[in-house]
Amino acid sequence: MTLHKSNPGGEQDYQAIDRHLRGFWPGAHFHDFSWTKGPIQQVLPRFRVRRITPASAQDAWVYVTKGAFEADGGQRLEFIIEAPAEDPIHVESLAMVTYRHLTGPPLDLGQTVAIGRPWITGSPQDHFMVDLPYPFGPKLEWAELPNGEPVRFLWLVPITASEAEYARTHGADALGDLLEQNQADVLDPQRRSVV
Question: Fewer CB near the terminus (10 Å): N or C of the chain?
Fold first, then answer.
């Protein structure tokens, strides 16, 4: 395993990410969390996860990384999880995925990540697929650092181990098509596998 060193990621870079998120969710209630139980703070001391409170009861909770863009190698990314309820497990999941992104081969669109446990307690989904942020559109997908470098926000879609294998074998687009054909509610923690 190669440990990538963080790029400088100065205060202006973090402020640019913050402005991007505030601009997308103007007036939203949010809270930024650090994660101290794992190794993420050792490799990325400024890493945070922003939890965005839903505007209405039918909306999802949203968790977004702030700092994954510092990964050395690959394009600059941040990660998003949507969830049906508030739960600190999503902060942990984003810390784990970001650590994997920093210390292993950089993640990219269409890849799958095993998280070693259900994404929500009791759920059969124990992997994420890195996907475009379809629920939010292109306005959230792209931000820009002060030096003009783009940062891409990608959605972590909870999937089962068999769905992850299907995506590796047939491609993430094929799995996405199956999820759509089956009208799968990917935020349902009890969703059955589509493969």
Answer: N
